Amino acid sequence: MARTGVREIVLLTLGWEDLPRRVSVEGAPAHERLREPVPGVLLRTDGGWVLLDTGFNTALMRDAALRARFFGSPTSRAVLPGPGEPLEEALAHAGIELAEVHAVGLSHLHADHAGGLRHFTGRPVHCQRRELAFGLGPDAEEHGVHRIDFDDPRHDWRLADGDVEIAPGVTAVLTAGHTPGHQSFVVDLDDSVGGGGYVFAFDAADLRQENIEQEISVGGRVHATPEECVEQVRRLKAIAAERGYPLVPGHDPLVWPALTRETAERFGRSPAR
Ligand SMILES: [Zn+2]
């Protein structure tokens, strides 16, 4: 019997972050800076669209007092694509309604990944159990995890303890280190669309050259050593090599737009703005 896989991938850019390169690259000089895209991934699966990661919480960025509390870092700046709601606009551009997203997978709970979760109450949200426990704990906010993004009793949490298939062709892989319950995603495409697939590292590896090719640890870590973070990248590289899939870094300013165009072309969509 043919396996069932993902039938389409749409990559989204839900904003940008201006930040020191050392956030992504352990040991980089303090003055070096990058503008990194904020990723989202839409997957058409058996049963409907699954969204991986949700971008920023715009409400917290547009109110001056909340912005000072949650996005007041003197060294990093969050940038939205425009005056509207990035998720709604990105989905509208792809011709998909928010209501058509039937489940969400979260790589982790950082503010640039979990901030749009409020749009998806009542729908299954796949996250690692230890990530949510950390997010609801006392030291989350100092690590850029904002409880207000996800502490809503209406969320339908589907909490995993390790690797798990969250939808046909979509497998979460626990890659703890960047945060205590960070997960990456292996996406297997359906044979009907030519097969193959991708491994989306998300923040287990921000940048292709430094984090993946050179195996330099990401700079942002919670309760983990650089060695532990590099070990997770090696694990993802092994999975990718075994399947013959590209390993896609989470915040690469060159890789993300290039892959956005490539997937749009493959699936016959107009390229993202
Ligand atoms: Zn992160």
The separation of the N and C termini measures 39 Å
Task: Report the total helices.
Answer: 8
Q: Stretches where pLDDT falls below 50 for ≥5 residues?
A: none
Helix content: 10-25%
The rounded Rg comes to 17 Å
Shape: globular
The distinct ligands, each listed once, are: zinc ion
Strand percent estimate: 25-35%
Q: How do the helices and strands follow one another from N- to C-terminus?
A: EEEHHEHEHEHEEEEEHHEH
Biggest sheet strand line-up: 4-1-2-3-5-6-7
- Overall mean confidence score, pLDDT: 96
Number of strands: 12
Largest sheet features? 7 strands, mixed
Provide the structure class.
alpha/beta
Mind explaining what this structure looks like?
The chain is α/β, with parallel strands linked by helices and 273 residues long. Helix content is 25%, strand content 27%. It is built from eight helices and twelve strands. It has helices at residues 58-62, 64-70, 86-94, 111-114, 129-135, 208-213, 226-243, 255-266, and strands at 8-20, 33-45, 48-52, 77-79, 101-105, 124-128, 156-160, 164-167, 170-174, 183-188, 197-202, 247-249. The strands form two sheets. It has a seven-stranded mixed beta sheet. The protein has a five-stranded mixed beta sheet with strand order 8-9-10-11-12. A hairpin with a 2-residue loop joins strand 8 (164-167) and strand 9 (170-174). The longest helix is centred in the last third of the chain and has 18 residues, at 226-243. The chain binds zinc ion (ZN).
